[in-house]
Design a protein that fits this description.
By secondary structure, the chain is an alpha/beta fold. The protein has two domains: 9-107 and 218-244, 3-Layer(aba) Sandwich (Rossmann fold); 113-215, Dihydrodipicolinate Reductase, domain 2 (2-Layer Sandwich), CATH 3.30.360.10. It is 30% helix and 26% strand. It has seven helices and eleven strands. The chain has helices at 19-30, 64-73, 87-98, 113-126, 148-160, 221-231, 241-244, and strands at 9-14, 34-40, 54-57, 77-80, 104-107, 131-139, 178-180, 183-190, 195-203, 206-214, 236-239. A six-stranded parallel β-sheet has the order 2-1-3-4-5-11, sandwiched between helices. A five-stranded mixed β-sheet has the order 7-8-6-9-10. Strand 7 and strand 8 form a beta hairpin. Helix 4 (113-126) packs parallel to helix 5 (148-160). The chain is globular and about 60 Å long. The two termini are 27 Å apart.
């Protein structure tokens, strides 16, 4: 997006004082092709950061849709790192972006490359197993559950199975977790945990477990950089870092 090598792309970050937001700011400031021009918080005015070419949103699911729509109305390109975007909200965003020629929004449930690859591996395995469940754990301060990563994983598993569904006995019992796209998801919120996801597959006489564990926020750095470097060339709504990494087709599926 830069006109010259000496003219970096300007970025504003909403939720800049949060756990992820402060790290996003550090990554932007360390990138030679981008300039952080605004650290926005809940106390910031609606027009603060409007001069930036890119808005990087890492706020809360309750306020993120309004922030994103306002940025798109201003002509900014948007990266959404806020967790908790439902399929319904993404459908609404799809329509909103489609009505604005040249607009671009990249929604990233998880910036960890390992997490993205784990989800992709799970979609491959899903075609060969009928018994599938997801267990995800995050720090005690994470306000949404299931996590956006778990929701995305469940939706991709369901799509990979082509409507065949999974075996989820006694799914009406509360202890069996929440069904997401027909897949049981169990959420843990605990001290001493950053992020962990297990996708468990059961078959005749065997079990396959695809596990990803986040040990530190450093795991998000490469994904944040990839999102920043891609946003200038994207069109429309793109959901999932896998498309930026060349692991999927640029669409909602």
């Amino acid at each position: 997006m830069s006109d010259t090598a000496t003219s970096p792309t300007t970025v504003a970050v909403t939720g800049a004082t949060g756990r992820l937001g402060s790290f996003v700011c550090d990554v932007i400031e360390a990138h030679p092709d981008f300039q952080l021009v605004a650290r926005l918080t809940s106390a910031s005015g609606e027009n603060e950061g409007a001069q930036a070419q890119v808005l990087f949103d890492v706020t809360h699911p309750q306020v993120s849709p309004e922030i994103v729509r306002r940025a798109l109305d201003r002509g900014q390109r948007v990266i959404v790192g806020t967790s908790g975007w439902s399929a319904e909200k993404l459908d609404e965003l799809q329509d909103f972006v489609a009505a604005k020629p040249g607009a671009a929004a990249l929604v990233v449930p998880n910036f960890s490359l390992g997490s993205v690859l784990g989800t992709m591996l799970a979609t491959i395995a899903a075609k060969h197993f009928d018994s599938i469940e997801i267990i995800e754990a995050h720090h005690a301060g994470k306000i949404d559950s299931p996590s956006g990563t778990a929701v995305r994983t469940a939706e991709l598993i369901a799509a990979a199975k082509g409507g065949a569904g999974v075996e989820a006995p006694f799914a009406d019992q509360a202890a069996r977790g929440q069904l997401v796209a027909g897949v049981p998801v169990h959420s843990l919120r605990m001290q001493g945990v950053i992020a962990r996801q297990e996708v468990r597959f059961g078959g005749a006489g065997e079990e396959l477990v695809v596990t990803h564990v986040t040990h530190s926020k450093d795991s998000y750095q490469a994904g944040i950089r990839a999102a920043l470097e891609a946003i200038g060339t994207l069109e429309g709504l793109v959901v999932g870092l896998e498309h930026v990494l060349g692991l999927g087709t640029v669409d909602r599926a």
